[in-house]
From TrEMBL:
<feature type="transmembrane region" description="Helical">
    <location>
        <begin position="83"/>
        <end position="104"/>
    </location>
</feature>
<keyword id="KW-1003">Cell membrane</keyword>
<feature type="transmembrane region" description="Helical">
    <location>
        <begin position="116"/>
        <end position="135"/>
    </location>
</feature>
<dbReference type="GO" id="GO:0022857">
    <property type="term" value="F:transmembrane transporter activity"/>
</dbReference>
<feature type="transmembrane region" description="Helical">
    <location>
        <begin position="155"/>
        <end position="173"/>
    </location>
</feature>
<dbReference type="Pfam" id="PF04632">
    <property type="entry name" value="FUSC"/>
</dbReference>
<keyword id="KW-0472">Membrane</keyword>
<dbReference type="GO" id="GO:0005886">
    <property type="term" value="C:plasma membrane"/>
</dbReference>
<protein>
    <submittedName>
        <fullName>FUSC family protein</fullName>
    </submittedName>
</protein>
<feature type="transmembrane region" description="Helical">
    <location>
        <begin position="425"/>
        <end position="445"/>
    </location>
</feature>
<keyword id="KW-0812">Transmembrane</keyword>
<feature type="transmembrane region" description="Helical">
    <location>
        <begin position="505"/>
        <end position="526"/>
    </location>
</feature>
<keyword id="KW-0813">Transport</keyword>
<feature type="transmembrane region" description="Helical">
    <location>
        <begin position="395"/>
        <end position="413"/>
    </location>
</feature>
<keyword id="KW-1133">Transmembrane helix</keyword>
<dbReference type="InterPro" id="IPR006726">
    <property type="entry name" value="PHBA_efflux_AaeB/fusaric-R"/>
</dbReference>
<feature type="transmembrane region" description="Helical">
    <location>
        <begin position="20"/>
        <end position="38"/>
    </location>
</feature>
Length: 691
């Protein structure tokens, strides 16, 4: 019988979880000791800072997160001093300025994907809140000198926590990101090979293909997100980062190409001759061998042998139709991409110098998502600000600080995931409150206040909380416990305030109210709807298809922009709970169209000396428009007519019939693609209307 998540975490802990928790307690103890030694006013902020750095403890990620946290803290500290300098005597305008600042940073955080970069905006947001609110809680003491001293103290506390966590992570049982990247790259390659085999298999199921493409996109996102941080791991780090980017980029190229064979086999089997079917069987067999072989050299030789075989057959174009000639050429190009993926993986494993290079996948940036994220944070903060302004309770500050951090950090998660995470966080808060009041504060009130006793009392709760943080599935429980526990206990040289029962109870209520408020605001402001986002993502794909001709390295540029977009399309498609997965197919079609249009331009340039840039640009725009029309279930003759116009121009000055045959084959295949896509969408719309 399988144990529940939390029970499994504590009853059958892994070695990594125990080491993670031990390192976390050690870093918090170190941060607390340094803060107490230098008599910093609120050492618990150093502990909070150290807690956040425990998520993903790999060396490169910790260094990157530390850099992000320190730079975000410094930026936020400067802004906090600016607000206090002009508005320390006017709390209402000060709250308004802070709310706008939070909304701005929150909106910007929605434009990036990497958690560490999102964390930069979270720290830039919360640092001025801490400085301004804690200063305004005692306005009679606010002078230029005290404002600077308070700002300096808060910034110092946060930086101390970050540096302590980084130091422990790098020196005690260090865990390197390169190990994780190797595993992620292996997962990406194996899933890609499995997907290729599913597409080549005439008996492959629709559900298996889509499940596999979902897994590929999720694995690619994880590999791409972690790739930048490995640059911090020694002189070989930047080379490994470039290799990971090449794997991500070229994997999308393979995915773009292999769909052609699968869709033709399923929807137009009559166009495939016996020779081509036999070739696809051999290709599928060789790719299975590559997937089953762990030795790089063997995989590389198999891929190269298959590539040479295809190249030889593709030159015999007089015996095949234009469409088949193009498919042979496409298979050869796909194997070339696989060879590059294997080379990049070898570089990632061994850390060798390599000239391979490709851009990282870019996050999809949508102003609507940024607006919804900014509005959500704006409302969360203003609700807390109103409560603080009308009650004047220092505990009400908790309503404004903790929810703001999580509002930004959860912004890019799907609504269903956020809902579940906040529920689990509330459960963590519910446990943290009695543990803080009846265990930690009760024992500390009877102790002599020595540092050793303080750590002895706090280490057990932190250890258990950090064990939950060590697992992705139980992370919300751990954060919901550790952060409120720290804010309630507030370990310091002077613990008069947390040992006051009325303040502690007020702070506990404020934390519960803050997290509950955040939960309901996430429920009320969910962001743009699924259909709206699907439509905007497809139109963004059309714009990129139109802009593709302006790029110096169009394939790399297009892959970098389509990675996160495809991941979003698949996630929205899954939210719609449709078995057809039409939107995912449309996204994959858009990916394929971009790569196909690049090949058309390259082929046209090889068969004629004329400058056909104008007509090719027109063809590119018609291609993009036809994609959107097909996505609406509409068919048009514009694209076929445009293809005929290009062919008529090419035939006037063609240098070789073989290349002309390939171009005709591409146009035939694209026409079939648009017909199939429009039919698929019409059937889906009919099904929706019937329900």
């Amino acid at each position: 019988m399988q144990l529940p998540l939390l029970a499994a975490t504590y009853l059958t802990p892994s070695k990594d979880s125990v080491i993670f928790a031990f390192k976390g307690v050690l870093s918090m103890a170190m941060a607390l000791y340094i803060s107490l030694y230098f008599n910093l006013e609120k050492p618990y902020w150093a502990v909070v800072s150290a807690v956040f750095l425990q998520v993903r403890p790999e060396g490169g990620l910790v260094v990157e997160k530390t850099v992000s946290q320190i730079t975000g803290t410094l930026l936020g500290g400067v802004f906090g001093m600016f607000v206090l300098n002009y508005l320390h005597a006017a709390p209402v305008p000060a709250m308004g300025v802070l709310a706008v600042w939070l909304a701005l940073n929150s909106s910007l955080s929605a434009m990036v994907r990497r958690v560490n970069f999102i964390y930069f905006f979270a720290m830039a947001s919360v640092t001025p809140c801490i400085i301004v609110l804690l200063t305004m809680s005692t306005p009679e003491l606010a002078t230029n000198q005290t404002i600077f001293s308070i700002s300096q103290a808060r910034i110092t506390e946060i930086i101390v926590g970050a540096l302590c966590a980084m130091t422990i992570s790098l020196l005690v049982f260090p865990k390197r990101l390169k190990t994780s990247l190797r595993m992620q790259a292996k997962t990406v390659i194996n899933r890609t090979l499995h997907y290729v085999n599913l597409e080549l298999d005439p008996e492959g199921s629709h559900e298996d293909r889509h499940q596999c493409i979902d897994e590929i996109l999720e694995s690619l996102a994880a590999l791409n997100d972690d790739s930048s941080a490995v640059a911090y791991e020694g002189p070989q780090g930047p080379g490994r980062a470039r290799a990971a980017s090449v794997i991500c980029n070229k994997t999308l190229s393979v995915v773009a190409v292999i769909q052609i064979f699968g869709r033709l086999q399923r929807n137009h089997p009559e166009v495939l001759s016996g020779t081509l079917k036999e070739l696809l069987d051999v290709l599928r067999s060789d790719l299975k061998k590559i997937a089953e072989t762990s030795d790089y050299q063997t995989c590389y030789e198999l891929a190269q042998a298959q590539r040479r075989k295809l190249l030889k057959i593709s030159k015999q174009t007089e015996t095949v139709t234009p469409l088949e000639a193009r498919l042979l050429k496409t298979a050869h190009e796909m194997l070339s991409e696989m060879v590059l993926i294997l080379r990049a993986n070898n570089t990632l494993i061994k850390g060798h110098a390599s000239v391979l290079k490709a851009p990282e996948h870019l996050p999809y940036r949508d102003p609507l998502i940024g607006l919804a994220t900014g509005l959500r944070t704006f409302l969360v903060f203003n609700c807390g600000a109103l409560l603080w302004l009308y009650t004047g309770s220092p505990a009400a500050i908790m309503v404004m600080i903790m929810p703001v951090i999580f509002s930004i950090m959860f912004a890019r998660m799907p609504p269903a995931v956020v809902k579940q995470a906040l529920k689990r966080m509330l459960m963590g808060v519910a446990v943290a409150i009695p543990v803080a009041i009846f265990y930690a504060l009760n024992l500390l009130a009877q102790s002599s206040g020595d540092y050793g006793l303080l750590i002895l009392v706090l280490s057990a709760p932190y250890f258990l909380g950090l064990m939950a943080i060590s697992q992705r599935s139980t992370l919300p429980y751990g954060l919901g416990f550790c952060i409120p526990f720290t804010l309630l206990v507030q370990p310091a040289n002077d613990m008069t305030r947390p040992l006051s029962v009325d303040y502690t109870l007020s702070a506990a209520i404020a934390i519960v109210v803050g997290v509950s408020l955040l939960y309901w605001i996430f429920r009320l402001i969910t962001g743009p709807g699924v259909q709206t986002m699907q439509r905007r993502l497809l139109h963004a794909t059309r714009r990129d298809l139109q802009r593709l001709i302006e790029q110096e390295a169009p394939a790399h540029w297009y892959n970098a922009r389509m990675g996160d977009r495809l991941l979003r399309l698949t996630s929205y498609d899954k939210e719609a709970a449709s078995d057809a997965r039409v939107i995912t197919d449309l996204g994959l079609t858009g990916l394929n169209l971009g790569h196909t249009s690049i090949r058309v331009r390259n082929l046209v340039q090889t068969v004629t000396d004329k400058d056909l840039s104008v007509i090719l640009k027109h063809w590119q725009y018609v291609l993009a428009d036809t994609f959107i029309e097909a996505a609406k279930g509409e068919t048009t003759e514009r694209f076929r007519q445009m293809c005929d116009s290009v062919l008529s121009q090419v035939r006037q000055d063609a240098n070789g019939p073989a290349h002309l045959t390939l171009i005709e084959g591409i146009f035939d295949r694209l026409d079939l693609t648009f017909q199939r896509t429009a039919k698929m969408v019409r059937e889906k719309n009919t099904e929706v209307k019937s329900h």
